[in-house]
Amino acid sequence: MFQGILIDKDDSGYRATLQEINDDQLPEGDVTVRVAYSTLNFKDGLAITGSSPVVRKFPMVPGIDLAGTVEVSGHPDYKVGDQVVLNGWGVGEGHWGGLAQKARLNGDWLIPLPKEFTAAQAMAIGTAGYTAMLSILALEHNGVTPDQGDVLVTGANGGVGSFAIALLNKLGYRVVASTGRTSEHDYLKQLGASEIIDRATLSEPGKPLAKERWAAVIDSVGSHTLANACASTKANGTVAACGLAQGMDFPASVAPFILRGVTLAGINSVTQPKARRILAWNRLAKDLDFALLPLISHEIGLSETIEAAPRLLAGQLRGRVVVDVNR
């Protein structure tokens, strides 16, 4: 038996509860992991509250991230005792995820936990930091360098935004952070933002083309914010789109792409090839200032997760929420 959050839906409604689960209820997989830490991401908040149809089958254990120790393995790459980390691959949506003390998974979804990280540090980074790193890799692939000008980070107070600012600053870029929370300016400056702008300047309908301002953009917001970011990106700049906090729509024109040569790079953090995942985590080990992790993240217990989910969706929690599944 182990503890986990189980989401169910039947004639009596939709509910998420913390309960005892039998090992024989675990789904199919060739690796069983004793989970040490997971996270509460925006997608997990949607799943737990039922605010959006994230969960594709019931019952479901949420949690799109996990870090822990291999307990049973039928996979050639892993043996009992190995430390592993997982991001994405539909866990917490179509396959039981990390918000439980055990997880049974497809070993191809795992990568070894880099030796530089503890399990708790890896989950402080989680999908948010991993997505930020994938976005930076996309900018670098397109030749964006610090001497080309400012990089805009939207959704700056969220997990992806927080890590994007910290990583870009460490790599020598001048970062402009977009946020709607004036109370968080000091936090964003501590992360490395050189300038802060009000998100309202980007979140309303705008023109097909605007004044060229950004050498590059990392956008976790979508909708009008992404459209305006593209419209104000410099010629031959790159916009990495990795989120939809404002919306999934993209009310834009082709003008920035055909008149300025702007590249819109989509960031898929769910199903990256293993080599790409390992590269991103190795770059995080090299390029992230670990001293910022306590500033970006805070820890809660598994028993607190259901109550925290609606607060996360309401924007009342800053940065990353790390979940110790054993308390």
UniProtKB/TrEMBL annotation:
Residues 9-323 form the Enoyl reductase (ER) domain. It comes from Pseudomonas mandelii. PANTHER family: ACRYLYL-COA REDUCTASE ACUI-RELATED, SHORT-CHAIN DEHYDROGENASE/REDUCTASE. This is Oxidoreductase. Signal peptide: none annotated. InterPro entries: Acrylyl-CoA_reductase_AcuI, ADH-like_C, ADH-like_N, ER, GroES-like_sf, NAD(P)-bd_dom_sf, Zn-ADH-like_protein. One of its GO terms (molecular function) is acryloyl-CoA reductase (NADPH) activity. SUPFAM superfamilies: GroES-like (SSF50129), NAD(P)-binding Rossmann-fold domains (SSF51735).
